[in-house]
Amino acid sequence: MFLRHFQLREQPFGVTPDPRFLYLSSTHREAMASLAYGITANRGFTALAAQPGMGKTTILFDLLGRYEKTHETAFVFQAHQTPASLLHGILWELGVQVDGNCQDLVRLHSQLNDYLLRIAAAGKRVLIVIDEAQSLSEPVLEQLRMLSNFETAREKLLHILVAGQPGLATLLASPQMEQLRQRVSIIARLAPLHTSEVCEFVEHRMRVAGCTLAVPPFTKQAFEMIARQSGGIPRNINNICFNALSLACALKRMTVNREIVAEVTRDLDLSEVQANPEIGATRAHQTAASGFAPTRTAPYQRKSTFRSFFRISTVLGACVVLTGILTWGVRGADPSAGAIEAISRPAIAVANRPAQSSPANVIPNAASPAEQQPQQFEIVRIQPNETISGIARKRYGKYDEHVLQQLRALNPWLLNTRLVETGRDLKVPVTLSQRENSFEQVRAGNSLNSAKAR
User: Fold this and answer.
1) pTM score, two decimals?
2) pLDDT of 49 higher than 50
3) Phi, then psi, of 65 in degrees rounded to 5
4) Per-residue model confidence (pLDDT) at position 406
C-alpha cells in the first residue's frame, strides 16, 4: 500500500522472521554471541528464553544460515507431544527416510545414531534447533536429554538449541528437569529495546527495505511514542510502524508525526474493546489532554454527547406529537385543523419539507437562541483509500475534535473514522459552526423551539 509512497522496494515491517532485517541491539548481540560460542565450542545443549515478539525465531534463522556450511541443520517448530513424534520430526528435517514403524523408539534411535556417525566421519556436525520449546511435555524434554548422550569419547555428535518463551525457563528450573538443566551449558536472554535502539531498529529495517529518502519519515517525537507504546518489543514496533506508514500514506503525508502514532496505538489497543465493545469502537477518536493517552473515565461518562442529545430530542418530539393528538381528541375538532394547530409549526415544516440532496437542513445552530438558523450540509461519497480526516482537511483545512463533533452530529453511524465503507454517503457541513456553539446550546435551542410550539 505505502511502498511506492515512501520509495521502498519491499515491506520493511513484515510478519516473517527474515534474517536480513535482524537488528542486533545490545541484548540481541549478546545473545547471538553466547549461542554462537556454544555451537562453535560444541557444548551440546544451549537455550534461548524471551517473551513473545522479541525476535527469537529471527535469531534462530540467522544462526542456521551461519552454520549451514559446517553443520547439517534441522529446524523443528511443531510442539511434538510424544518422544517418538519428536524423533521422527528430527529425522524428517535431516532428510533421513524412516524405515519401519514410526513409533518404534529403538529403531528411531538407531537410525539417528547411524546418521550422526556418518556425518561425523565426513567432518561435519549436526545442529538441531527447536523453537517454541515451552510447549513440550516433560517426556519429550527427557527425550531431548537422552539425545544429548549421542557422543564419542572426544566430542558431542549433536548440538541441540532450544528456544521458547519465559515458560521454558520455568520448565527447566522445575525439580523434575534437574538432569536436563545440568546439561544446558548456556542460557541466553533477550530484553526490550531502549528508546535509542527503537529509532535504530526502525531505520535499519527501512534501509534494508530500500528506503532512499533524504529525511527519515518518522519524527523524533514519533519515535519516543513508539518506544513507549511498544514497550521496546520488536513485534509491537513493527505493528505500530506498519499502521503508521499506512495512515500517513492515506493522508498523503511523507512524515509520520506524534499524532499519527497516537491514533494508531489507540486503534491497536484491545483492552477496552474486551471490556465494552461499544466503547472500544469509539475509542480511536478520544484524545487525552497529555501524552495522547486514552482517557480513563467511567463508561457512562464516555457516551457520545450527540447520542444523548439525539435521544432527548427524539423524546421531546414524541411528546409534542402526542400532546397534539390528545388535544385534537379532547376538542373533537376536524383533523385538518385542530391537530395541525396542536403540533408545533416548526415540526410541520420539517416533516413536509421536500427531500433534498444538497444542501439541506439537518440540525439547528444555537448561535442565536432568539432566532435559530439551520445548518447546511452537502453529501459526498467516500472514495477508495479516503479517510474522514482526509476529507475534513481537504474541505476545511483542519481536522480536530470540533470538526469531528459536527460530522458525527450529521452522521450518527460514524463511530470509527478510520473504518469507513467505500462508496458510502457522508454528510458534511457547508460551513463549520462557531467553536463556542456546544451541544448544550443546541439542546437549549431545541428546547426553546419545543416551548414555542406548546
Assistant:
1) 0.60
2) yes
3) -65, -35
4) 85
